Amino acid sequence: MKDYDSLHKWHPGFAADKIVKGRNNEPGAVRSLTIKDGPTFTEELLSFDAGKKTYKYRIIESPLPLRDYVSSISLTESGKGTTVVTWVGDFRRKSLSETPPAGEDDKAATELITGVYKAGLANLKKQVEGS
After folding, report:
1. pTM (predicted TM-score)
2. What is the DSSP string of 9-53?
3. Alpha carbons 130 and 109: distance in angstroms, whole number
4. Residue 60 and residue 42 in contact, taking contact as beta carbons nearer than 8 Å
5. Distance separating alpha carbons of residues 131 and 128, to the nearest angstrom
């Protein structure tokens, strides 16, 4: 998880993750993500702190029904031989309409991102625990 270009290694929804601009783990780096059996989109690394085990990024271009997406991932040792992973994001739905198309309302956007986070974190836990 520590490398910005490693999402495809622990998240089951992604087939590829490649740095296309800048250097891995350096703010300003841009990665191209390919969804399994789906489209590609780009994200920019906004901050990275290896010591604090945290990074923050934003979506630049995406086919997702979102805009202004900024997210962060952080790891915190719990002192019990475990680590807590926190993945949070802030975003808006892409449609500015008061009556957005089906599947593009606030609820759909929130459910989409929640599903992405849950799938990634569940698979990460499975990998770490070796099951």
Report:
1. 0.91
2. HH-TTEEEEEEEES-TTSTT-EEEEEETTS-EEEEEEEEEETTTT
3. 32
4. yes
5. 8
